[in-house]
């Protein structure tokens, strides 16, 4: 440049002082070494294939991802993961749009306005962690660590958070399970020590052959599947039930029956759809059980329903059946009919008597078969426990439990993972509290608000539904060493969950988190939100911490398999923006708490114990698969039957093991993250069936299932060998010691947890519970909800999923509007870019209200009309009607969490918030299920008004 | 046309870098208390153009908050988040690809072209793959660093290398920064509720105009 | 070796309605919001309680006599390969949109983001659609090409790989042993609108759950 511009001459003098203060160092850039620069140059533009698992979705499909320039480019299923066998659904295929979404939470932020006002400022991580640690220590000093709740959302990534907060001294570490479907899991838990019964459809099955080799077996054995209130094609996490259900049907002539008030997508591909009245799942199962018991005839091949050989493996058969039969003598006050009879069930379910009879007969006679009941129903009804128990018993007595092609309790057979990493050992630490003026010593776990509180002591998955009440009124312990101890809840940490929108009635939650004490301070002093997205709970939080998103963090996956399988959820791209992994957040916060003087946090439990997050995952893997060597064929015939198997499949196959006869262990080389990376990301162990039998004799092996007696238990509080046993026994002992009957049990007129079969009615159902009969005329519709799994609260910002119409609850019915979305970016550095999108009418899916054609025509409603639903509690929601023949008259369905969003982080769906319904607004906050304290999401009635 | 470095120009660069230091900091992060205090000591700059007006507007804004500097730092932090970060969609997106890509959006091949420029100078973003490379603060840091290199090399007599870096700097300014920074600055000017950021945007816009021509 | 004839067979009895085919296609081929190479639809018929819902899915048929090729003013910009796949050459396409209107199945669209590379001024005399426009004003045409880039790597199309119901099959109809040949041999199959006369052979083939419902969906314009 020949001519000087000479325009800047005054700045050095003026600004030198500023420069001196701020320095001239590099803030955002760094120098590369020559080799770094060369490596970077070389790697640019090349694909790298990596294996991981989904954390976009609770189904956690195994994935093969193609990465270029550190960017997620392509997503396919991992062919070696049998859950999804190389395929993925629309939700995962759209995952780039979640990762590269503008609505992500990018930096730590601190609230500057009032809760809910949506005003935040950015802070550095160290400021955020410092703020949080000081608050936590302050709360712990003032009220005790038990005043803190860590709700860690999804299961696999919960471990770092649990470990930290258990170590800090609170027993309140929970996860999504508590608001998922606890009533549904109850039967398997009581009877098997399990959780979820699923059909034997996961292929390929890795099976030991007579010649000792292992073979991948394809094909299906099942002949009948009954899905009651279960919609695997749309709502659930058990992804092999997609290809498995249609595969068994087409390839094995398996009959599929779906019982659902709505023609679900699963029902639409079934052989038979039975549209029941909502909330009568247990009624139908009870009638099936009675029919089978009354009509079983071992000598008539057409009536050979019960597999009587099963009795060898069951304890408490007679107790259960006698109690069940004792109801037959009683008349139901609602219809005057004998309980569990076909007429009774026909009256209550609204099905034809012949249909019920045929269903019971077919289930009795067809083998192998599987009876499966659902998450939203009965999992979301007040009395879902009864249905879950009877369903479990039906699978057992017909000989289908763990039979090839039958019904498998996946909880019992999946690989164990987590081990010491999740920090439950810290619950055993001794602590002292002053109770009624007296110093008492106990363990951390004795401070638990549910297990030792007066409401739901058997809430082994915790009762998140009870939190709002605890924020407002505090906790009083009724059992255990700290009986009489009262404490407030002062801190709620919501991580990767969205409790304010999903865990019951949002109004109720918002009232609880914004309630102030006499001094004008929030009763709940600290609300922390940790997530990748900015969802409703974040709007009310004091601190927002951005967590690394899907593909950016590390853990393990193993959703509901029929045999032990574990796969690596590897970090395949770097956390975007300033988000951090759960492991990093744990370490940062642990160090800060320690630095500020907390001595419950010890370096040797955290940063000295784990060099990096691989170490953490390796600790989770240390005991895997941790299942006994049982079943037919025996998974490892070369090793002792009944011994627990630990180690990677390779070492177990090679015989590279130690056998500990004293502890009954078979110990191979451990599964590690490195081992998984070298093996397509997956560890697959062999399949076997009849895992409760000896492999060569008709005898129980006493190593399986996971009950106290290691038998199938039809009684849950009993004595054996001088010991009190059964799933309910320890809770009854607590009740006997203190004399205090839990409030949940009092609601249903119980004094203790029942030792065997029990029955009670659901709430808000005018057709089965006489207390609600009076509402039937004024509120003629039952309203139910169902998950549309690609339209959950954390995927509404994903445009491609806004093009995926589903049933009557998620349809392209938007009004024209403009909103920012991500869209493809051909040839770009990232696969996605943000654009301002003008949506034309009918282009974008919104949550809709599904209503029967005849009902709609009576009310003058047509598809697309805005309607309002109002319940007897005076709460109402609005949305657009979808009028259809695919739903039972008198029933209305809304997708779970599909509308009425109140966070701008929800993306375009927020733009349609005034025209979409949030089903949870209709939920009765007092309807908390009596045994496990679960929200009664699906018990409600409404009247309908056209707007 | 090969540009030849001359001493008056070097003097200019030596002055200019102070502006770059200031602005890269202001647009990269929320101002610290120390930084605001240092601005209190800056005397009013004799008005000679819009850069000066902008700087004076900033300095005046800080001075009028002398007795509440703590709170003012907080106000600016909130405004910084609102303008550039979120959690609601920010009105002044600080990434070049938002302005330069065909579809006016964030994250395109524009970003990777910027990354290549850094690489050519032997540099990379500290939070590579996490923070997009074309953030206004990073780009300003890049030219401020190149400016510094030019001065250093010139002073030790490495004229050819100095010219090479000068060329790199000019081309980044001329065929990249000047194409989008004014539009970005206009967004700040339009949306900011704080004179501090309005002033900074005015200074930035005109600095880029001046430096690039 | 015999020439290949690629075909996609979709067993609609096994469709679980998940839309993975539609979205996996978008992911693989960078298809923007509101546009489809491959689209999924449903249809409800019948009176309660005998209601039925059917799933359908539509893409390019790779017709034997593709009506989209003749109207193209640029030689080689769109053509049918020897293996049956109908493709667009992005280097040659000038984005005039004639093929889009010529396809009776609606299988083609103009991509809103990908600019034309071929200089349109060379054709402006005969193609008024591009008159006065430069390459950067125009956008290329896009359509299903069975994920040609994956086939060339020896892989299946993305919609087949990711199909959640395992309802989609891809292979060579000229190989009598192939899965697609077997499926076509042993099942009732249908193709869309044979009356359009773009056949006789279409390479997107369905095994319907119910043939009558399939034709009803055709009549209603759903597929």
Instruction: Give the strand order of the largest sheet of chain A, numbering strands 1, 2, ... along the chain.
Output: 6-5-24-23-22-7-8
Structural class designation of chain B: mainly alpha
The CATH topology of the largest domain in chain A is given as Rossmann fold
Strand composition percent of chain B: under 5%
Level-1 CATH class name of chain B: Mainly Alpha
Percent helix among the residues of chain A? Answer: 10-25%
Spatial separation of the terminal alpha carbons of chain B: 14 Å
Shape of chain A: globular
What's the short story on this structure?
The model of chain B has no long low-confidence stretch (mean pLDDT 88). Chain B has helices at 7-28, 33-40, 50-63, 69-85, 96-100, 109-120, 136-155, 159-191, 195-212, and one strand spanning 123-125.
Any overview of this molecule?
The complex is a heterotrimer of chains A (947), B (213) and C (223). With 947 residues, chain A is of the alpha/beta class. Helix content of chain A is 25%, strand content 20%. Chain A folds into four domains: 109-180 and 418-557 and 565-619, Rossmann fold (3-Layer(aba) Sandwich), CATH 3.40.50; 182-413, Dimethylsulfoxide Reductase, domain 2 (3-Layer(aba) Sandwich), CATH 3.40.228; 716-747, no CATH class; 777-946, Beta Barrel (Barwin-like endoglucanases). In chain A, the strands form 14 sheets. Chain A has a seven-stranded mixed β-sheet. In chain A, strands 35-43-40-42-41-44 form a six-stranded mixed β-barrel. The model of chain A has no long low-confidence stretch (mean pLDDT 95). Chain B is mainly alpha-helical and 213 residues long. Chain B has a single domain (7-212), classed as TorD-like (Orthogonal Bundle), CATH 1.10.3480.10. Chain B has nine helices and one strand. In chain B, helix 7 runs antiparallel to helix 8 (159-191). Chain B is globular. In chain B, 51% of the residues are buried. The mean pLDDT of chain B is 88. Chain C has two domains: 6-62 and 146-220, 2-Layer Sandwich (Alpha-Beta Plaits); 78-142, Alpha-Beta Plaits (2-Layer Sandwich), CATH 3.30.70.20. Chain C has six helices and nine strands, in the order E-H-E-E-E-E-H-E-E-H-H-E-H-E-H. Chain C has helices at 20-29, 98-102, 148-151, 158-161, 179-186, 211-220; strands spanning 6-11, 39-45, 52-58, 78-80, 86-88, 109-115, 139-142, 168-172, 204-207. The radius of gyration of chain C is 18 Å and the shape is globular. Chains in contact: A-B, A-C. At the A-B interface, helix 1, strand 1, helix 2, strand 6 and strand 38 of A face helix 1, helix 2, helix 4, helix 6 and strand 1 of B. Strand 1 (29-31) of chain A pairs antiparallel with strand 1 of chain B, so a sheet runs across the interface.
């Amino acid at each position: 440049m020949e001519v000087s511009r000479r325009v800047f001459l005054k700045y050095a003098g003026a600004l030198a002082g500023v420069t001196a203060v701020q320095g001239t160092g590099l803030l955002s850039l760094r120098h590369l070494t020559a080799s770094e620069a060369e490596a970077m140059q070389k790697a640019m533009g090349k694909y790298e294939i990596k294996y991981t698992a989904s954390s976009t979705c609770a189904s956690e499909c195994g994935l093969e991802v193609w990465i270029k320039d550190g960017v997620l480019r392509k997503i396919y299923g991992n062919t070696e993961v049998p859950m999804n066998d190389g395929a993925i659904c629309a939700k995962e295929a759209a995952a780039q749009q979640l990762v590269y979404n503008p609505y992500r939470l990018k930096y730590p932020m601190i609230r500057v306005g009032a809760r809910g006002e949506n005003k935040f400022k950015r802070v550095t991580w160290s400021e955020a962690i410092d703020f949080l640690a000081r608050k936590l220590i302050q709360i712990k000093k003032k009220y005790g660590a038990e005043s803190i709740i860590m709700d860690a959302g999804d299961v696999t990534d919960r471990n770092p958070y649990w470990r930290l907060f258990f170590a800090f001294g609170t027993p309140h570490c929970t996860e999504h399970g508590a608001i998922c479907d606890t009533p549904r899991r109850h039967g398997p838990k009581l009877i098997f020590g399990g959780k979820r019964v699923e059909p034997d459809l996961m292929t390929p099955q890795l099976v030991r052959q007579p010649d000792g080799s292992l073979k991948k077996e394809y094909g299906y054995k099942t002949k009948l599947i009954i899905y009651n209130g279960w919609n695997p094609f749309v709502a659930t996490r058990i992804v092999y039930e997609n290809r498995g259900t249609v595969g068994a049907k087409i390839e094995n002539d398996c009959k599929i029956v779906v019982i659902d008030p709505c023609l679900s997508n699963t029902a639409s591909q079934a052989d038979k759809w039975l549209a029941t009245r909502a909330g009568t799942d247990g009624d139908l199962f009870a009638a099936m059980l009675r029919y089978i018991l009354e009509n079983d005839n071992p000598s008539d091949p057409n009536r050979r329903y019960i597999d009587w050989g099963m009795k060898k493996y069951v304890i408490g058969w007679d107790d259960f059946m006698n109690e069940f039969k004792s109801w037959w003598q009683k008349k139901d006050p609602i219809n005057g009919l004998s309980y569990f009879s076909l007429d009774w069930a026909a009256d209550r379910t609204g099905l034809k008597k012949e249909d019920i009879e045929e269903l019971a007969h077919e289930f009795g006679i067809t083998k192998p078969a599987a009876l499966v009941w659902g998450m939203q129903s009965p999992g979301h009804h007040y009395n879902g426990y009864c249905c879950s128990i009877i369903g479990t018993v039906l699978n057992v007595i017909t000989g289908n439990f763990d039979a090839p092609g039958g019904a498998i309790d996946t909880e019992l057979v999946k690989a164990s993972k987590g081990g010491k990493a999740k920090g439950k050992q810290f619950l055993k630490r001794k602590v002292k509290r002053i109770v009624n003026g007296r110093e008492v010593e106990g363990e951390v776990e004795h401070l638990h608000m549910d297990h030792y509180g007066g409401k739901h002591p058997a809430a082994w998955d915790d009762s998140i539904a009870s939190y709002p009440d605890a924020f407002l009124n505090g906790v009083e312990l009724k059992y255990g060493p700290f009986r009489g101890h009262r404490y407030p809840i002062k801190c709620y940490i919501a991580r990767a969950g969205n409790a304010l929108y999903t865990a019951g009635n949002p109004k109720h939650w918002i009232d609880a988190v914004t309630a102030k004490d006499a001094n004008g301070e929030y009763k709940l002093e600290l609300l922390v939100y940790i997530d990748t997205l900015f969802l409703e709970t974040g709007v009310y939080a004091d601190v927002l911490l951005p967590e690394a998103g899907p593909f950016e963090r590390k853990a393990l996956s193993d959703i509901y398999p029929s045999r032990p399988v574990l796969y690596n959820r590897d970090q395949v791209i770097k956390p975007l923006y300033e988000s951090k992994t759960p492991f990093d957040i744990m370490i940062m916060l642990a160090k800060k708490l320690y630095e500020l003087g907390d001595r419950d946090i010890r370096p040797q439990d955290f940063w000295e114990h784990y060099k990096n997050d691989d170490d953490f995952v390796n600790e989770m893997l240390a005991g895997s698969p941790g299942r006994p060597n049982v079943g037919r064929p025996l998974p490892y015939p070369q090793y002792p039957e009944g011994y627990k198997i630990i180690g990677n499949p390779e070492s177990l196959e090679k015989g590279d093991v130690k056998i500990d006869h004293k502890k009954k262990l078979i110990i191979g080389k451990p599964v590690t993250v490195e081992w998984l990376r070298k093996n397509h990301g997956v560890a697959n162990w062999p399949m076997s069936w009849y895992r409760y039998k000896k492999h060569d004799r008709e005898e129980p092996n006493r190593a399986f299932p996971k009950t106290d007696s290691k038998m199938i238990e039809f009684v849950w509080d009993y004595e054996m060998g001088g010991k009190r046993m059964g799933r309910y026994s320890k809770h009854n002992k607590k009740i006997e010691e203190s004399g205090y009957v839990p409030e949940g049990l009092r609601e249903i007129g119980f004094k203790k947890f029942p030792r065997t079969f029990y029955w009670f009615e659901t709430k808000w159902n005018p057709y089965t519970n006489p207390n609600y009969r009076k509402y039937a005329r004024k509120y003629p519709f039952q309203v139910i909800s169902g998950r549309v799994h690609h339209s959950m609260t954390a995927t509404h910002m994903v445009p491609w999923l806004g093009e995926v119409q589903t049933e009557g609850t998620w349809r392209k019915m938007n009004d024209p509007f403009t909103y920012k979305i991500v869209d493809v970016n051909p040839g770009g550095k990232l696969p996605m870019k943000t654009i301002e999108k003008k949506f034309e009418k009918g282009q974008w899916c919104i949550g809709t209200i599904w209503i029967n054609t005849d009902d709609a025509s009576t009310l003058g409603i047509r598809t697309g009309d805005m309607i309002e639903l109002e319940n007897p509690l005076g709460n109402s929601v609005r949305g657009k009607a979808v009028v259809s023949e695919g739903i039972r008259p008198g029933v209305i369905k809304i997708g779970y969490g599909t509308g009425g969003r109140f966070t701008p982080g929800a993306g375009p769906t927020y733009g349609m918030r005034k025209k979409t319904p949030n089903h949870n607004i209709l939920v009765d906050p007092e309807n908390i299920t009596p045994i496990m304290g679960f929200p009664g999401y699906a018990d409600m009635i409404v009247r309908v008004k056209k707007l | 046309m090969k540009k030849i470095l001359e001493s008056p120009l070097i003097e200019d660069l030596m002055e200019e870098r102070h502006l770059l230091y200031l602005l890269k900091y202001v647009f990269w992060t929320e101002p610290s208390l120390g930084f605001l205090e240092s601005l209190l000591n800056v005397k009013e700059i004799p008005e000679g153009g819009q850069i000066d007006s902008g700087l004076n507007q900033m300095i005046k804004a800080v001075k009028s908050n002398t007795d509440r500097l703590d709170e003012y730092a907080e106000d600016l932090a909130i405004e910084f988040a609102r303008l550039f970060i979120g959690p609601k969609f920010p009105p002044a997106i600080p990434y070049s690809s938002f302005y330069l890509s065909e579809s006016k959006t964030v994250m395109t091949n524009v970003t990777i072209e910027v990354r290549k420029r850094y690489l050519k100078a032997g540099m990379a973003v500290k939070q590579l793959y996490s923070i997009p490379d074309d953030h206004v603060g990073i780009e300003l840091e890049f030219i401020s660093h190149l400016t510094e290199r030019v001065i250093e090399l010139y002073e030790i007599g490495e004229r050819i290398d100095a010219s090479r870096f000068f060329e790199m700097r000019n081309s980044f300014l001329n065929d990249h920064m000047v194409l989008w920074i004014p539009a970005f600055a206009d967004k700040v000017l339009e949306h900011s509720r704080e004179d501090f950021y309005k002033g900074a945007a005015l200074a930035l816009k005109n600095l880029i105009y001046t430096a690039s021509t | 070796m015999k020439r290949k004839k690629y075909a996609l067979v979709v067993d609609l009895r096994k469709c679980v309605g998940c839309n993975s085919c539609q979205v996996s296609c978008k992911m693989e081929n960078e298809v923007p919001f509101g546009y489809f190479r491959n689209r999924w639809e449903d249809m409800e018929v019948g009176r309660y309680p005998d209601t039925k819902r059917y799933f359908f899915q539509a893409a390019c048929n790779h017709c034997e006599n593709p009506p989209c090729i003749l109207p193209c003013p640029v030689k080689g910009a769109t053509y049918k390969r020897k293996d049956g796949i109908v493709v667009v050459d992005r280097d040659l396409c000038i984005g005039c949109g004639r093929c889009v209107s010529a396809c009776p199945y609606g299988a083609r669209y103009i991509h809103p983001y990908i600019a034309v590379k071929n200089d349109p001024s060379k054709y402006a005399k005969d193609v008024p659609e591009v008159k006065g426009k430069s390459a950067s004003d125009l956008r290329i045409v896009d359509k299903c090409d069975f994920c040609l880039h994956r086939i060339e790597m020896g892989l299946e199309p993305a919609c087949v790989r990711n199909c959640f119901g395992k309802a989609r099959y891809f292979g060579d109809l000229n190989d009598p042993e192939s899965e697609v040949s077997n499926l076509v041999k042993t099942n009732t199959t249908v193709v869309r609108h044979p009356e359009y006369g773009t056949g006789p052979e279409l390479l997107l083939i369905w095994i319907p759950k119910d043939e009558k419902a399939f034709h009803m969906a055709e009549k209603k314009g759903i597929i």
